[in-house]
Amino acid sequence: MIRHLNLKAYGKVNLGLDVLRRRDDGYHEVRMVMQTVGLYDKVELLYREEPGVTIETNLYYLPANENNLACRAAALLLDEFGVRHGVHIRLNKFIPVAAGMAGGSSDAAAVLYGVSRMFGLGLSREQLQERGLRIGADVPYCVLRGTALSEGVGEILTPLPPAPQCQVLIAKPGISVSTRSVYENLHADRLRPDQHPDIDGMVEAIRRKDIVEMTARMGNVLETVTVPAHPEIAAIKDMMLESGAAGALMSGSGPTVFGLYTDSRAASSAYERLRYGDGSRIARQVYLTDFFNRKEPEETEE
Q1: Cα(112)–Cα(74) distance, integer angstroms
Q2: Residue 10 and residue 38: Cα distance in Å, rounded?
Q3: What is the 8-class DSSP label of residue 162?
């Protein structure tokens, strides 16, 4: 029995995001190239003698009940395996919220792993991914992490070689976007062929470690919905490209924008501009990190 676990829940960006169609069940069929980044939430799990799940966060506006994916993840395993004890979750958020970086899904993935470890459930990564899909479409990927091709509704995952390393500038404007609303307003069947990213070409570029070809194929069909509604997204993209980014893109359904830099000085200069200079008017949260490809969860226990 482990009484105390500290875990890191890493965010992600979409190097490429294509939506193929809306299925009869209402879900959208996607093809995405996912990449974990070095920005993470801190997830602390504490054993409780009493049954059930309690949670606290550093953000007052996040739900502290079953509406929080982390809470739902813990309850799922405790209920399934008839665990008579409980867990308290302390969630310290750094990944922007409602921002297209799968912060909530990553928290849930970390909790699934942690609860399995804490109570000796012995679940494999594949078994955790299977259960994660019941919580959210991005959770199986957040269990896997690294560079991966994601298909279906997000549950069909093909690990890829690590994408070429670079610096990742992340900027979120002071708005939040509803993922459901973005998908409901997307009409994938009406898009021009050139509005769909070349996912196969990107996968090949990653396999060849060709960052020039990889960034040339960056694309996100959801920008066709989110960018017209929120012009600050386009303004941040333009600012990143002008400052030397090899590529810039909205992640997920937005509104977070990320830029990929091969020149560390250009990345630092762009960070300063967005964080403290004229770019600070449109970007409320700004981070400079890199790609993260370690598969083994990082934990400390007490």
Answers
A1: 6
A2: 6
A3: P
User: H/E element holding 99?
Assistant: none
Residues tagged active-site = 12, 138
Please state, for a pLDDT cut of 70, what percent of the chain lies above it.
Answer: 97
Backbone angles phi, psi at 173, to 5 degrees: -70, 170
Task: Give the pair of three-digit tokens for residue 4.
Answer: 């105390």
> Looking at per-residue confidence, does 241 or 99 come out higher?
241
The CA-based dihedral angle spanning residues 226, 230, 234, 239, taken in that order and rounded to the nearest 10 degrees: -140
Give the C-alpha separation, 85 to 119, whole Å.
9
Domains of the chain as residue ranges with CATH: 4-159 (3.30.230.10), 167-290 (3.30.70.890)
pLDDT over threshold 70, residue 132: yes
- Asked if 77 and 101 count as a contact pair (C-beta separation under 8 A), the reply is no
> 134 CB contacts (<8 Å, ≥6 apart)?
76
pLDDT, tens digit, 9 for 90 and up, residues 28-47: 889 999 999 999 999 999 99
Predicted confidence (pLDDT) per residue in 37-80, tens digit? 999 999 999 999 999 999 999 999 999 999 999 999 999 999 99
| Bridge partners of residue 29, in order along the sequence | 21
